[in-house]
Please model this.
Amino acid sequence: MEDLIRTALAAVDDPGVVHADVRVVAPYRFVQLAVKNGAASALTDARTEALGVRVRTARAWGFATTTDLRPGPAREVARLAVRLAQAAGRHSREFLRVTDDPAAKGGRYATPLKVDPFTMTFDPVLELLTAAEKGLHVSRAVKSGMATFNAWEENKWYGSSDGASYVSRIVHVGAGVAATAVRGSNVQRRSAPTSFGGDFSQAGFEFVESLDLAGRAPEVGRQAAALLEAPVCPTGPTTLVLGSAQLALQVHESVGHAVELDRIFGSEAAFAGTSWVSSEKVGTLRYGSDHMNVVADATVPGGLGTFGWDDEGVVAQRTPIVHRGILVGTLSSRESAAELGLQRSGGTARASGGDRAPLVRMTNINLEPGDSSFEELLEGVKEGVYLDMNRSWSIDDRRLNFQFGTEFGRRIVRGELGGMVRNPIYSGMTPAFWASMDAVGDRSTRHLWGLPNCGKGQPIQEARVSHAAPIARFRRVAVRGG
Model:
């Protein structure tokens, strides 16, 4: 692979090229297994490989890719990338600027594994999923049960014309269960550990075993059936306590995407939208209450957004995004950081494979914990609701107006959790919502959740990211029953 990179770089011999980099991802492997209602319902074992060459002239980028990992095709796509950059440069009115970041020099990064999911057989996985799915069926009302397992492996080689190079192997795994209870037109679903196929981590199969899906399954089934009897969530402005899993998604949608610099500058407007944040307000914008502290951290152990270097060879780093409610940082690449006037990239240029050009992506966007226990968060609530586990979501292209539905809700009455409510929905506007946060849970309420399916870009790129979130309390939030 290193010889192939050198071959591609040597083919970029045009004097107008000021930079070139090559990524080889081989193999990229995805495995999925699922058991539904006692039978195997999915078995995917997909492998791909690709080489991508990106070049920069004084005015434009060019990118080309091939799945043929031989010297001849590598030279061809390198020359094609040059021609594309030259063609784009003829229509560019401005010179490109990029930050001058230290380059990786022969670095290596690998996911720490106890049990490598890509060297074991499928038998233990199917046994675990079968036992977990069986445990969901604790009531006749549970009409459908599912247990799923997913694993990804990315082997990457990177090299650039400025001498940067690294090699990495990253493995992500995750699993979960879901039960669906039905009575007439009333359909209720409960999931564990979360509603996006389970929880995910950068780890080996030992993480999946630690989830104890078979042990969790009966309670998941019981709650799905119990929700059929629960009253509809009451409507009106109320105090809202959000569980960790739902708050992680709230961070993803209303903070993570909104602070991606390419969205702020408008270069993602065609597909992913823009942002309510303007570049000139970075450093002064009031994003939320003083209790709001958010960091982008590509160094968190186990995070799906954790790596050694991004796809521009910039080292992984921890960047403050919101400090005491003020927007102090963004997610950036070398180009977008330079456009904002920064000296260094945020190290968040990532691509979904060798066949895609890097773009600004989330790493691990984390809401920092506060100092309140779960009981203390509830103590301050005379009447309200506790909601968790996403069921539906909608947010506009600027990441400003949103509506989320959750699988699960409970009344809060005089500081204590009461009975369940079904079909809860809450809505709001991003700055007003975060401004209403008046208490944040401590580390005992915080969890690092993996999100496996964040889409962005044209053509579409699917990324996996993580969010650490505690439980938090919000005042006067619009809540209703669906």
Observations:
- The chain has a mean pLDDT of 96.
- The radius of gyration is 24 Å.
- Residues 423 and 482 are 5 Å apart (CA to CA).
